[in-house]
Amino acid sequence: MQIGSDLVNYLEALARIELTDTQREKCKSDLQDILSYIDTLNELDTSGVEPLSHSFPVTNVFHEDCVQESKDRDGLLLNAPFKKDGCFKVPKTVE
Questions:
Q1: Would you say residue 37 has pLDDT above 90?
Q2: How far is Cα 3 from Cα 39, in angstroms, rounded to an integer?
Q3: What is the pTM of this model?
Q4: Which of 14, 23, 68, 78 could be 19's S-S partner, Cβ–Cβ 3.0 to 4.6 Å?
Q5: Collapsed DSSP state (helix, strand, coil) of residue 29
Q6: 9-34: burial string, b at 16+ Cβ within 10 Å, e else
Q7: Given this model, what pLDDT does residue 58 score?
Q8: Is residue 93 helix, strand or coil?
Q9: Predicted local distance difference test score (pLDDT) of residue 14
Q10: Record: fold of 5-42
């Protein structure tokens, strides 16, 4: 695929930026280099390579949920500086 001036102008409009003529030519050259490199990578034989989402093995680190007894409400509220109706009472932060 060849990168043309129309594509660079389109990308410039999408990005909502204004480039000088020198910057447009540099962008055009850089994009063409990127596409050429991708074409080189496409020539590699990857028939025996398994597709990956990560370069290293990823395992689930979550623990299983298990039902446990809840904490004693009265015990939790023993050290609370302010309490009301069996709950922590905190200062109002929003008017």
A1: yes
A2: 14
A3: 0.50
A4: 23
A5: helix
A6: eebeeeeeeebeeeebeebbeeeeee
A7: 81
A8: coil
A9: 96
A10: Histone, subunit A (1.10.20)
